[in-house]
Q: What sequence folds into this?
């Protein structure tokens, strides 16, 4: 399949990339390209200009700074997967990156692209909601920081303006007693989630749940922050009854539709089961155990 | 129409060409460079038949534009054999009967090549994980895994 013709520029600086977007209302950013290029080949997208940001190597990094894990938007999934820091301290993120598409796609696919594309089936959005992450956007007027919960507006629509480029993701560095997990059901490797649940929790000194973040993937037009479930966990002991109550609330927050991946009822049931499993794993990890 | 002059190294040989921006890397490889070992399978980023190694990483060349490879290093299945001698990965597929129709084989071998550079002593699970983006519809994968194990052993020797 051949995409329609387009112009192509690979700017050397971020400022140049932003200027190109500002000058061209029909331009699109090309990062990993593994959502955009298939859409162009199917002629569902036909940008007049591709602004290829792959040469902006300054947008590729993973580092802790000032109480945040800062991830450059151009960081590839494979880089997250191979990062010792992510493996050790950010198990929810490590779980997530490992189930995105397949190993070959993960060599190209970027974290920023996974968020900016805002496909409701993408995996990082729910994870960023669970973490309470922030998204940094750079535009002609400079930088601004957008909380993940304000970022996803609708299917494939974000708070980014046309001339803004997502440059960085900031995840709060976990306090001691924190753990997380991502649980996804997919029909086969490389498929989008039938449903998936991201959970991040922190236990207080007495072992009770101090805070909880829960994000749901592909059961609505946007990723869903299961706020009622989060509230139900707060201050509670991490026992099975608490987890099940939270899972009921997460399933109520889901807005799945019946499609080729399953019925609405099935997906809601999946959310419930996956929430319990993700929370169990998150708690085990917070307590210093659980499988890595 | 947007034309671009690209320069890259392909299997160790410097190449250059004028390409349209929308030309996919896999078409550039097959039709401009006449290296037809790289196959087009699903053309939808699913099957991995078109896998090549771009700047050290295996990628699906149906989902990269040729212009993105400008200045880069590309290795295709034609780059595996050296001086008429099969690479241990090719030998493994031969010895362990790692193919039936052969359509997925070039992509499988390129993924295996990059994987064994990173992980020279893999478990069976590691191998199955590594090739999970490459589909084979004939073999059931058992002999492909054996072929890669054969290559790993031979390359470590």
A:
């Amino acid at each position: 399949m051949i995409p329609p013709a387009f112009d192509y520029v690979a700017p050397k600086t971020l400022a140049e990339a932003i200027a190109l977007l500002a000058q061209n209302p029909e331009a699109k950013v090309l990062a990993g390209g593994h959502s955009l290029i298939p859409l162009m080949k199917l002629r569902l997208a036909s940008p007049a200009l591709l602004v290829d940001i792959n040469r902006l190597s300054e947008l590729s990094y993973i580092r802790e700074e000032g109480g945040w894990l800062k991830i450059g938007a151009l960081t590839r999934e494979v880089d997250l997967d191979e990062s010792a820091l992510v493996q050790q301290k950010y198990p929810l993120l490590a779980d997530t990156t490992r189930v995105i598409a397949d190993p070959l796609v993960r060599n190209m696919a970027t974290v920023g692209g996974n968020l900016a594309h805002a496909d409701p089936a993408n995996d990082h959005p729910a994870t960023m909601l669970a973490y309470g992450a922030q998204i940094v956007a750079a535009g002609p007027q400079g930088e601004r920081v957008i909380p993940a919960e304000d970022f996803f507006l609708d299917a494939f629509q974000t708070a980014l303006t046309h001339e803004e480029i997502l440059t960085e993701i900031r995840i709060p560095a976990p306090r001691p007693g924190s753990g997380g997990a991502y649980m996804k059901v997919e029909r086969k490797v490389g498929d989008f989630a039938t449903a998936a649940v991201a959970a991040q929790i922190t236990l207080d000194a007495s072992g009770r749940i101090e805070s909880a973040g829960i994000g749901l993937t592909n059961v609505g037009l946007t990723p869903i922050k299961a706020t009622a479930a989060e509230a139900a966990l707060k201050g509670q002991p991490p026992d099975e009854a608490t987890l099940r109550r939270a899972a009921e609330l997460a399933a109520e927050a889901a807005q799945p539709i019946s499609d080729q991946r399953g019925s609405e009822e099935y997906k809601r049931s999946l959310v419930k089961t996956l929430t319990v499993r993700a929370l169990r794993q998150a708690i085990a990890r917070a307590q210093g155990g659980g499988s890595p | 129409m947007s034309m671009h002059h690209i320069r890259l190294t392909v299997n160790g040989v410097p190449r250059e060409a004028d390409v349209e921006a929308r030309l996919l890397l896999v078409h550039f490889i097959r039709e401009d460079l006449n290296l037809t070992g790289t196959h087009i399978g699903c053309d939808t980023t699913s099957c991995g038949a078109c896998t090549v190694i771009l700047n050290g990483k295996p990628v699906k060349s149906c989902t990269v534009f040729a212009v993105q490879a400008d200045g880069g290093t590309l290795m295709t299945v034609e780059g595996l054999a050296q001086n008429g001698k099969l690479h241990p990965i090719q030998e493994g597929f031969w010895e362990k009967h790692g193919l039936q129709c052969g359509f997925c084989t070039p992509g499988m071998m390129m993924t295996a090549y990059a994987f064994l550079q990173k992980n020279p002593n893999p478990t069976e699970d590691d191998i199955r994980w590594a090739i999970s983006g490459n589909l084979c519809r004939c073999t059931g994968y058992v002999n492909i895994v054996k072929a890669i194990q054969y290559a790993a052993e031979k390359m470590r020797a």
Observations:
- The mean pLDDT of chain A is 97.
- Chain A touches chain B at residues 1-8, 10, 30, 33-34, 37-38, 40-41, 50, 52, 54, 78, 101-105, 107-108, 189-190 (CB under 8 Å).
